[in-house]
Amino acid sequence: MKFASLASAGIGVLCASSVAAAIDPLVIKGSKWFNSKTGEQFFFKGVAYQPRTGLTSNNPDPLADVAGCKRDVAVFKELGINSIRVYEVDYTNSHDECMKMLEDAGIYLLLDMPSPQYSINRNEPHWDHDLMSHWQAKVDKFADYPNLAAWIAGNEVANDVDTTPSAAFVKAALRDMKAYIKAKGLSTPVGYADNDDPKIRMNLINFFNCGDDDTARADFYGINTYRWCGDKSDFKTSGYEDITKNMTDYSIPSLLTEYGCNLVRPRTFSEIKSLYGPDMQDTFSGGIMYEYTEEDNKYGIVKVSYGDSKVEKNDDFDNFKKALEAAQPKGVKMDSYKPSGKPSTCPKASSVWHVKSDVLPPTPSQARCQCMMDSLGCTFKNEKLSASEGKQVGEIIGSICGQTSCDAISTDTTKGTYGDYSACDSFQRAAWAINKNYENQRGAVCEAGDIGTKIVSSPKQSDASKCLSMKDDLGQAGSSSSSNNNNNSNDSDSDDDSNGQGSQNGSSDEDDDAPEDATSGASSAAVQLSAVAVAAAAVGVLAF
Fold first, then answer.
1. Of 259, 353, 414, 541, which has the fewest beta carbons less than 10 angstroms from its beta carbon?
2. Quick one: pLDDT at residue 396?
3. Which of 319, 311, 328, 250 is closest to 283 using CA atoms?
4. Residue 258 annotated among the catalytic residues of the structure
5. Burial category of 27 from C-beta neighbours within 10 Å (exposed 0-12, middle 13-18, buried 19 and up)
6. Between vectors from CA 197 to CA 14 and to CA 360, what angle results, nearest 5°?
């Protein structure tokens, strides 16, 4: 799909089709979305859509369930929504019928790039060729749909202080996927959605919108928040006022990518009046209510089941519909809007932010990693390891890297150091480590416990230094990762306890309980990927 260009500065076309479409393309200008044809400001009035009841497959994909789409699109039209957010699809399926139904109903799609199988794990973050290739395949599959409004590159990945290193890898992924989308002649925006954690929220908000390289900055920012609970809450007491103040001078669009506290039911959705009214309409581009279907976490407004055409509405449905009908946000015209926002100041590395913000992990390079594998004199006998072998080799590599430098496969986000082979997959990094031990033993020992290994007397690549010049997966010239400083240059090191407020004003109120994240890693744990940790932890899961 090709995107038409607009003459006005600062405007990027988000979605369009080379053929006539039943839905108008959206564009971003400054911190707002607009309908490119009418020039009217666009506000998302959407629901999270990920039905799970009655699912029999391990690969949930509501956009491939034609019967379910026929059932639910009719309800979407009754609700008056203009968008849905979907967390997980199987890109090998056909989505033509469902996407056409949504297009004909005037409904745009916000789609998450990761899936549970292919996501950046918050506790052991990594960005490699395997992850990138799956995300690229999803982009390829959805590129031609005119109602694809935007991609979300991560959902609540860093969710506390200990998991902030993962933010560096998510931003690297966002950078590379934006470059991939641009190389295909597309300009679909890519954003991030956070969990509104009081200790790290401002660091995340600033981090994803900072730096001199606009390719590495998010195109929009989403906040998943569950602060407003019941009619006893209001704009001020809920903390929505603080959220709005935090984003007032933000230079890219912001929206609530999840909202709808369920501690008080039935939900009346009184926050909608503020979200689409004078309180927030100048700052936010609407939001996505969590969620459409009633599941075990009790956030739904209808009950449905895969393979069943029946829809059972609850009181939340009527309340949500009524609140949306009353929402009439007053936007601005695209031609008269003059954006003045500037990128945020990068948060400094500190005790609550374990990232040197001006250096990101490298773009994966399958060619570099294969070249490295071809240079090894000692490697694994088999191309894959079992789960038990993966656990064993993790312990072995931890021992090796405790005795010798494993900088080439290690990362330290606080210092901003990423080894030359740190973007290789865990199997490749493990092979590098046992070869390192082999070299240290001067060829005397090529072993990895009980795991089969082999000596390669004449490696295909005799000069491993040549591997560093191999192009990355985006076709960019290779170089030593240790010399790469990605252009988030308005950052400096610091050991202070700053909450990274930068150019925004952070607030300190606590968050309400939110639903379990659909696509990010496991529960939080301290992550500083030193030479030992990257081998012992990241290599500890080697069964593919």
1. 541
2. 84
3. 250
4. yes
5. buried
6. 60
| Catalytic residue selected from 258, 271, 294, 389 | 258
Q: Is 90 exposed, middle or buried, given 0-12, 13-18 or 19+ CB atoms closer than 10 A?
A: middle
Q: Which of 103, 124, 156, 271 is catalytic?
A: 156
Average pLDDT over residues 350-354: 98
Tell me the percentage of the chain whose pLDDT exceeds 70.
84
Length of the chain: 544
DSSP 306-324: TT----EE-HHHHHHHHHH
pLDDT digits (tens, 9 = 90+) for 330-344: 999 999 999 999 999
User: For residues 451 and 393, is the Cβ–Cβ distance under 8 A?
Assistant: yes
Tell me which of 60-74, 321-335, 459-473, 483-497 is least confident: 483-497
Round the CA-based radius of gyration of the chain to a whole number and report it.
24
Q: What is the DSSP string of 171-201?
A: HHHHHHHHHHHHHTT----EEEEE---TTTH
DSSP string, 445-498: ---BTTB-EEE-SS-S-S-GGGGGGS--TTSPPP--GGG---S--S-----S--
Which residue's structure tokens are 């033509």? 96
- Alpha-carbon distances, residue 94 vs 64, 103, 288 (angstroms): 6, 15, 25
User: Are the C-beta atoms of 74 and 102 separated by less than 8 Å?
Assistant: no
pLDDT in tens, 378-415: 999 999 888 888 888 888 888 899 999 999 999 999 99
Tokens linked to 509: 């109120």
pLDDT tens digits, 32-75: 999 999 999 999 999 999 999 999 888 899 999 999 999 999 99
Tell me if residue 516 is catalytic.
no
